[in-house]
Amino acid sequence: xxxxxxxxxxxxxxxxxxxxxxxxxxxxxxxxxxxxxxxxxxxxxxxxxxxxxxxxxxxxxxxxxxxxxxxxxxxxxxxxxxxxxxxxxxxxxxxxxxxxxxxxxxxxxxxxxxxxxxxxxxxxxxxxxxxxxxxxxxxxxxxxxxxxxxxxxxxxxxx
Length: 159
Fold this sequence. Notes:
By secondary structure, the chain is mainly beta. It has one domain (2-158). It is built from two helices and 13 strands, in the order βββββββαβββββαβ. The strands form two sheets. Strands 3, 4, 5, 6, 7, 8, 9, 10, 11, 12 and 13 form an eleven-stranded antiparallel sheet that branches. A two-stranded antiparallel ribbon has the order 1-2. It is globular, with a radius of gyration of 15 Å. A hairpin with an 8-residue loop joins strand 5 and strand 6. 8% of the residues lie in helices and 39% in strands.
């Protein structure tokens, strides 16, 4: 990835996998914020708070509820900022979404309350999203994942 005017631009080796759209601050706005990461395979991860502090992360998946239209969230006063694109197959704890399994990528959104959302591919023209939640109970140290070859890009901060 190369950086151009605050944006991350895919290099030839990553263009077919992931494109982060903004460079967030390198440090958390407050101690209540958790880092949101995108790995080089297109998966979304979030810091898992531990005491004492560590670099534990968990993969994020769609929450098991009905998708909501982005426009409805905005009508409720939420401001959504697109922070990345990720692979849809990595967001579902149950495999590819049944509504539109052909959608390979989904936009990842961060709202003004710190909730992380991802597009849920549907046949309708109305953009629908689902909140992302931690995908499992057991966290892994990000540093150990990096030693295994994962490459993480900071894409935002959540609460």
